[in-house]
Amino acid sequence: MAYFNQFVGGPGNGYKHLVDGSLDIGQDLPGLKKWLDRNNPPGPGRQPVFLSYFGNGDPRYYGIEARDLPSFSSVKSHFTIEPLVPGIYCISATMLPGYYAQMYGPWTGWKEKRWREVCQEADRFRCADEAGQGRLIREKGGEYWTGIAHDYWWLRFQRLCAVLRAREPDDQVGYSILIYRLDQSDIGRVMNGPLPAEFMVSPGAD
Known about the structure:
By secondary structure, the protein is an alpha/beta fold. It has helices at about 30-40, 110-125, 130-140, 140-165, 185-190, and strands at about 50, 65-70, 85-90, 170-175, 175-180.
């Protein structure tokens, strides 16, 4: 299913042309497990693994231990926001362009502004002690802080994908799961650095 002929650069470039059911129906979790066993085996040197998966399968069923990134099944009210750290990032080809993101579309000036606001509020809540957090919840309500966490979760992922789209993957699994090895400078760029110009629109756009 993931085959593309050489006129478009072969199957390794298929994700640049078509995704979703034309390439990716979540079929490569078994292959990802084998890739991780071979390239990131258990032991002292094992790197953290992050996964954004397009499909209805359960990665844990295949023995895949990964930290959650927004995925096809991430439309839920409860989620754990893991901090981004250097490691191996496994992104389903359909998730990379952001078609299933909660705030779909290019990175606009509005999104950048919202990202900065959300980061500031998230830091304010995280740095408060238990009493301070209780006071913030009473002042603005629990729904406000849930909304901050939700926007942080999705906007951070869209920023991550914008950075990753500007580079070639380090490897692929079945041509539907893209593998990126990120170091600390990459993480800094995702969180704070300027995005590649080709994924930005004018600052005044909404």
